[in-house]
Amino acid sequence: MKHLSLHQFGGYFMVGGFVGVVTVIxxxxxxxxxxxxxxxxxxxxxxxxxxxxxxxxxxxxKITFNTVLAENEESHFNFYRFTLVALTGLLxxxxxxxxFRYGLYLDRWLPHYAGMSAFxxxxxTTSIITYPVSYT
Length: 136
Description:
Elements (H helix, E strand, L loop, with lengths): L5 H26 L6 H27 L8 H31 L2 H4 L4 H21 L2
Helix pairs in contact: 1-2, 2-3, 3-5
């Protein structure tokens, strides 16, 4: 397992927190574009998640790890692995968001915050699942 220095550890949480907030705001802005249907909700979750993953990758590379990826076999393998984990995370986040919002009837309990709440819970759940795979 990779180990982070204290500086990297702090950067990891600062970048992660920032990206999390920006991603939730992105999902909420997308929600303003169309009627709140299950299909559009799923699309908005997946678009916001994909944007957040791209932003996270870029910021962690530049801020947390302060690296420029060299073009070599290892960097290609790491990028493919990252992409596979990110796509898995995208699918899991979409699935969990739908399950949390509609399976737990969040629209009934949190009428104005159901979409955002389900997305946040789904993102956290997905992170718990994908984190060990990402950093081993």
